Amino acid sequence: MSSCWSYQQMVPISSERAFKFRKTNRHSIKFREAMPIYRKEVELRRSGLHLTRTDSSSKKARKTDPLQITKGFFENLERKSGKDYRWTRPIPPVSRLMIRDIARRKKVYISDWTDGLKNMRKVVPAILFLYFACLSPAISFGTIASQITNNSMGVVEFLLSAGTSGMAYSILCGQPMAFIAPTGLTLAFISGLFRYCSLKGLPFFPVYSWVGLWTSFFFTILGFSGSSQLIRYCTRFTDEVFNGLLSLNFIYEALASLRRNFVRADPMNLTTPFVALGMALTTFFSTMSVTAFESSKFLTQRIRSSVKDFGPVTIFVAMSIINSLPEFKKFGVPTLSVPDTFQLAGARSFLVPLNDVPLKIKLLCSLPAVLLTALFYMDQNISVRVVNNPENGLKKGAAYNLDMVALGLITGVLSLFGLPWMCGATVQSMNHVRAMTETQFNPETEEVEIVNVTETRLTGFVIHALIASSLLLLPLIRAVPIPVVSGVFLFLGRKLMSGNSFLQRCRDSFVEKKRLSADHPIQKLGRKRMALFTAIQMLCLIGLWCFKQNSATAIFFPSMIGMLMMVRSFILPKIFTESELTELGDPTPSKHEEI
């Protein structure tokens, strides 16, 4: 078959494909610029005149296919016009954004592993601390899931899912500094799905698996088609409300756990709940202190960095050892509830019987899968975008679409085995970035500055391998006090508040105007305009929280997250001018901007 030339890929493609490309991409800016000259070339060729080809096509091929495009044609066109006409039609359904992501990360894939081996001083303490930081949510959410799903899922399923999927994600993903983990939002969806199946008398696991398989299909297609670029319409307004919700969820779960100790205790003897409260607060304040020690003026920079790196895990282990002492055992502080041996809840088999539901139910499962896909899309892309924030100092580049494809494939495998779904974990991801960041205090600016960030897949793989291997240490995990886990939850929720300008504006609303910096929104716009913007964000946060907490609406919660984008796109521009939105740090994204 004769060929025409695709300039960027430098591979022959048939003229039939070139015609399809012209038909499909006729609205492309570059295509519209090239078409008038291309048509002139076609007319010349039909009259028997041909430009010199740079490939090795035969004379016979030229006669049979007058619609060829030569590589030299576009090179001459670029020299004459000074414009770039490197337009191609990638192999469907893979978008050029997906191809770009693969090409970008392929260059640094080996260094993603070797960089971690070269900086073990940062890797080892990061693994030790993040192991417990990632283990705690898996165990805590597993404990909650066993209650809301009637013991259909428990701690073992969450540990197995978090460990294996985290290892797979660290190998396949585009941004290895981001983690996937069980989240409160995903758990809320699982809870709603379980209640719906119970009301309708449907078997939970077959429905769960089909919803997950549909979600895997939708999410993978979205990744291959380059849909992650749409997340640019999810501006800082949405990010701040969403991260505020995640932070609130961590703090709420910690306080709810501490409150249960008081509810279950004997009203005449509240010693145990107060001891538990003391352990949680000690864990929280101690961890906050050691992580902030790096910016202090005491000792040397190397010692301060070591205290920050090894301090949190030391506190976690020390509090667990203290609770096991005879002097503290008498208080009966509750510890983690895990089974003695490795066994799935209800002694069920690993593979889910997919054919236990009729074809109609299998197809209808695609409807809740659309909602779950929306939740995954928002949660995953927002989490990764927070990691890729230029303020974090990462240099190897983002690959949003590759991240989506990796999560989509992992979701499909988890669904086949009836294991809990994982999704982008903003808190764990940001703590991973901070743990791998080398900083120093600048006495001139009196601020902590980033020196270097070790971007590696090694930490994520080892951390989740340890989580999976924790299934062999179930009796040891049972010794960890629940209040210590609650303290870690408080720490993670508080750290997520750092850098959230929405929460900072809530605080600054009560600060005297002359004590604020000259570029503060209050100085630029006035207190009333800033307070109005902040109040709208607060109402959105309250609405999301109420919607998530209501058992009747929990399954539709993902659609409400999408409403944040609608509020930002259609309501805020009618209340604030573009200059005001820019001063508030939330400019309207360009329609031609790509992430």
Could you provide a short overview of the structure?
Helices cover 64% and strands 4% of the residues.
Report on the architecture of this protein.
By secondary structure, the chain is mainly alpha-helical. The chain contains 25 helices and 6 strands. The strands form 3 sheets. It has a two-stranded antiparallel sheet. It has a two-stranded antiparallel sheet with strand order 3-4. A two-stranded antiparallel sheet has the order 5-6. α6 (120-148) packs parallel to α12, α6 (120-148) crosses α18 (458-469) and α10 (236-264) runs antiparallel to α20 (482-497). The radius of gyration is 28 Å and the shape is globular. The chain starts with a strand and ends in a 12-residue tail after the last helix. The model is unreliable at 1-33, 46-69 and 85-91 (pLDDT under 50).
Beta-sheet strand percentage?
Answer: under 5%
Based on helices, strands and strand pairing, what is the structural class? mainly alpha
The coarse overall form would be globular
| Major β-sheet annotation | 2 strands, antiparallel
User: Ranges with pLDDT <50 over ≥5 residues?
Assistant: 1-33, 46-69, 85-91
Number of strands: 6
Q: Count helical runs.
A: 25
Distance between the termini: 38 Å
> If you average the pLDDT, what whole number results?
78
Proportion of helical residues: 55-70%
Give the radius of gyration.
Answer: 28 Å
| Widest β-sheet, arrangement of strands | 1-2
